[in-house]
Structures are given as C-alpha cells and as structure tokens.
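User: I'll paste a sequence; please echo it back and then give the predicted structure.

Assistant: Echoing your sequence first, then the prediction.
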Amino acid sequence: MLNVVFDLGGVVFTWQPDRIIENLFEDPEIQKKIKSEIFAHSDWVELDRGSLDVDEAIKRGAKRTGLSRSKISELMSQVPTALNPIEETIELIHSIKRNGNKLFVLSNMHFASIEHIEKEYSFWDVFEGMVVSCRIRMVKPDAEIYEYLLNRHKLVPNETVFIDDTDINLMAASNFHIKTIKFENPNQCKTELKALGCI
C-alpha cells in the first residue's frame, strides 16, 4: 500500500493557460504579454500562496500589460471554469483507491479555482486529505509545503508517491525521499503506478 499524492492542475484537471489567453486575445503580441505578465509573473505565485487577493492582482496586471482592468478581470474569471476533470485520471484515481492505497492532494491553486472545482465536482471524498497552497500560505516547490504534507498527514516519505507535471515540483519532493512520477498523460501515469504495485 502506498500514499499517492496528486497535483490538480495539469494532472487531475486540464490546465492550458495558452488556450484561455487565445480565447480572449487575438493579437499575438498581446497574447505573449499576457503570458509573461500574468501567468508567468510572480503575482501568480502570490495568488497561489493566498497572499495576494484577486482584485489587487487585476489592478497590478492591468498596469503591467497596459490593458483595461475589465479585460484582465475577464481573463481571471475564465481561469476556474477552464479547469475540467481529465476523465481518464479520475478513473485512475478510483482504481488506485480500490486497490487499498491512500489518496491525497498537493496543489498550487488560487481560492477562486479551488472553490469552484470543489463546488462543481463530487469525487473529493476519495482523498484522505488535501493540501492546497492558498489555504496554508505555502507553495510548491518550497520545501515547507512538502514538510507540511508529510507532517500533517503522518506520511512516510518512501511509502509516498507524488504525481505532478512540473519537474521543479518533483525535484523538491524527491529531496524528501518521496517517490515521484512526472505526469505526461493518464496511460503513462498508470503504467508507472502499476510498476510501483499501486494498481
């Protein structure tokens, strides 16, 4: 039996910021600016950390991009609804659970996004515990969030596997001797979990 820890965006839910940007902005230069000044900006990390509220982030984002607050507000409002469950991952989660493993969440996410998906979807009871960045004022890949996960849920690192789609987050987990799987698609993830005896 293993403790299997899932990231949410890009693993359990679709996360495609380029698509969100392209749906709202046609100009390639503006698209590039939005990507660097909103999604890749340090303010995004602070939204995930819960230390910056969305109104202030919109105000700052408008100033950095030269776009109107209403346009940046519209962009931000699209983020929660762009998170859609990846059905094959959901099936995988249920099969891991049926096999007697314990499931957890470790995710960087804004308040608006986590509140939206918790309200919209009903599979959360499969998880023994959830660590969401905005609720504890910590973010991946900072070491403190992995310490929090292990201590809060009394997890033994070498009996724990963390699934994420970002190398830097996985490297940080492996520093704690947590096993890691880089998520590329549900089938590849399933194959690696089978090799660990989870399913």
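The first strand starts at residue 3 and ends at 6. The chain has a mean pLDDT of 97.
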